[in-house]
């Protein structure tokens, strides 16, 4: 009886262990494709395999991912909602395509000519998030998801179909952009057109607009240099305005040891973002030279005048956010302070009352 009881106990424990060794399948996606979009490439090439590896190595569970990039499950303006409603468990997206819901999360766009180095830009943004918990809390309180890590775009410049020498040459010129960055071109008297990367090539080719505010990694990756071969280095700055989020419901149903790994890999995803973006900035510029794009650089004096024309932009956006019930002034001041702490020198320092 004793031996039989012992054997029954062993079998019961083995059965419990087998029952508790679960495989979890998560849907992960982005409106942008991997490859030309650095933040999505880091999801596909780092976050997904690293979570799978660590969960298999450090727990008795397994995680599998159904990957849906390039808008196959959710477009660039739908990814936040796709995570919120359960279509995706994990989503990577630019806050720029949520101009109302994530208005304040686009704060780096509201202070152009900031750090051109992405490592510096990401670190400054992280300092702002740490000082202003409201930014992270909004994802969970309003949209049922947890921010796992920040990412961004590398340094922005301007690509055009035609050559130009003076800013006044851009007057009346139609230029596309993500939305929050379109006010940058007001100084030039250009006509802003809100657009997205997936539609950029065709729009440039057909004349919907004749220029794009774009970083070199995507300008090369999406082959915008074909319809618009003139690329002017302006240095509007790297923009840490992308994020990787996971549904709160999904995260909470995972075992504690798996949740811990997902959060840690999300943090590591953010920590590698700056270096990934810097590498792709260089590769993008080198690639554009190789394919024959006409690369020039704006004169420092013109850049300074351009920055002066946007002197009130951060304060204006801060007040707009305040009116929306968001801590706009606090966040914008935090960002200017965080950038100053990195040693970056603005062409024309911003001030917020």
From TrEMBL:
<dbReference type="InterPro" id="IPR038404">
    <property type="entry name" value="TRAP_DctP_sf"/>
</dbReference>
<dbReference type="GO" id="GO:0055085">
    <property type="term" value="P:transmembrane transport"/>
</dbReference>
<keyword id="KW-0732">Signal</keyword>
<dbReference type="Pfam" id="PF03480">
    <property type="entry name" value="DctP"/>
</dbReference>
<protein>
    <submittedName>
        <fullName>TRAP-type C4-dicarboxylate transport system substrate-binding protein</fullName>
    </submittedName>
</protein>
<dbReference type="InterPro" id="IPR018389">
    <property type="entry name" value="DctP_fam"/>
</dbReference>
<feature type="signal peptide">
    <location>
        <begin position="1"/>
        <end position="21"/>
    </location>
</feature>
């Amino acid at each position: 009886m004793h031996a039989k009881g012992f054997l029954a106990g062993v079998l019961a424990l083995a059965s419990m262990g087998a029952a508790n060794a679960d495989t979890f399948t998560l849907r992960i996606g982005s409106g942008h494709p991997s490859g030309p979009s650095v933040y999505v490439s880091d999801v596909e090439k780092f976050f997904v395999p690293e979570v799978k590896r660590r969960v298999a190595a450090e727990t008795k569970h397994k995680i599998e991912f159904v990957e849906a990039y390039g808008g196959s499950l959710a477009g660039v303006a739908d990814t936040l909602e796709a995570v919120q409603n359960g279509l995706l468990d994990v989503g990577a997206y630019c806050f720029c395509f949520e101009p109302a819901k994530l208005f304040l999360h686009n704060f780096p766009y509201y202070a152009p000519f900031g750090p051109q180095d992405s490592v510096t830009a990401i670190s400054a943004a992280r300092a702002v998030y740490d000082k202003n918990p409201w930014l992270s809390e909004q994802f969970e309180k309003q949209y049922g998801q947890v921010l796992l890590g920040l990412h961004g775009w590398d340094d922005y410049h301007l690509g055009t179909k035609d050559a130009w020498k003076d800013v006044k040459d851009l007057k009346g010129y139609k230029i596309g952009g993500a939305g929050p960055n379109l006010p940058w071109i007001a100084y030039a008297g250009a006509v802003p057109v809100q657009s997205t990367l997936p539609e950029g090539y065709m729009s440039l080719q057909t004349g919907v607009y004749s220029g794009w505010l774009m970083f070199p990694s995507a300008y090369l990756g999406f082959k915008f240099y074909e319809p618009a071969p003139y690329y002017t280095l302006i240095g509007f700055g790297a923009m840490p305005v992308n994020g990787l989020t996971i549904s709160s419901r999904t995260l909470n149903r995972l075992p504690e040891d798996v949740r811990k790994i997902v959060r840690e890999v999300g943090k590591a995803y953010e920590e590698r973002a700056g270096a990934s973006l810097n590498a792709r900035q260089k590769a993008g510029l080198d690639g554009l030279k190789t394919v024959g794009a006409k690369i020039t650089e704006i004169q420092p004096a013109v850049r300074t005048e351009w920055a002066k024309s946007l002197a009130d932009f951060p304060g204006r956006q801060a007040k707009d956010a305040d009116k929306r019930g968001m801590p706009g002034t606090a966040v914008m001041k935090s960002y200017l302070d965080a950038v100053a702490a990195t040693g970056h020198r603005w062409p024309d320092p911003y001030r917020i009352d």
